[in-house]
Amino acid sequence: AQKITQTQPGMFVQEKEAVTLDCTYDTSDQSYGLFWYKQPSSGEMIFLIYQGSYDEQNATEGRYSLNFQKARKSANLVISASQLGDSAMYFCAMRERFSSGSARQLTFGSGTQLTVLP
Amino acid sequence: NAGVTQTPKFQVLKTGQSMTLQCAQDMNHNSMYWYRQDPGMGLRLIYYSASEGTTDKGEVPNGYNVSRLNKREFSLRLESAAPSQTSVYFCASSDQGTGELFFGEGSRLTVL
Asked: Is pLDDT above 90 for B51?
């Protein structure tokens, strides 16, 4: 079963509008972390935002916020006031513990390609 | 501020050839990872190293080997390259805090 599901392969948004990128996850761990990364066309992976499973407040970083709904197992990324430079691939990822508890790998979704229209 | 450095950035191989992707980090992180990225599939973990001296298989380890040479360096070797290994490879490291991954710039490998 998919651990991270991003159901929107592509999204379009008008410049200056807000957009929500969906992410649902599946885990039986009580302690986990959720991440969003941005990958522009140049290819590098850029960390955007992090939410811990025990964090009561939704994470925010500038124009990025994470809408964390634990009971629904969703961790949607909200980008406010979209800019042309926001056009990129966006990946949702989850950190669980290995059974050995010794490492902290991330499992990634398949990504959402966001295009911001002028 | 080098962060995670991986080489080479581009490589073209013929089927059956071997090569090693090199990765080094200067952030004193214990854990290092190799991922591959294919269209429509996100990033998939090939191998990881939780700490110096240990390595473990990830989701897609077949056809690869790794070496954690020291705390800084983690290399990925293709012994006999196959066209299915055409991909973009990312090395990453993580700290003991949130587990955020710090990525290298990626290595684009084409196997003909």
From this structure: no
Nearest C-alpha neighbor of A59 from the set A41, A43, A81, A36: A36
The pLDDT of B26-51, averaged and rounded, is 92
Please name the member of B31, B40, B99 whose beta carbon is closest to the beta carbon of A33: B99
**In A, which residues are within 8 Å of B32 by CB distance?**
none
Q: Which residue of A has its CA nearest to B45?
A: A107
Q: Across chain B, what does the average pLDDT equal?
A: 93
**pLDDT digit string (tens) for A72-94?**
999 999 999 999 999 999 999 99
Q: How far apart are CA A37 and CA B94, in angstroms?
A: 14
Nearest chain A alpha carbon to B103: A45
CA distance, residue B53 to nearest chain A CA (Å): 13
Given a contact cutoff of 8 angstroms between Cβ atoms, the answer to whether A21 and A77 are in contact is: yes
Judged by CB atoms closer than 8 Å, whether chains meet at A47 and B44 is answered as: no
pLDDT digits (tens, 9 = 90+) for A26-48: 998 888 999 999 999 999 999 99
In the numeric block, the tokens 């002028």 are attached to A118
A1 pLDDT above the threshold of 70: no
CB pairs under 8 A between A and B: 61
Q: Sign of the CA dihedral B20, B53, B44, B97?
A: negative
A104 and B90: CB-CB below 8 Å? no
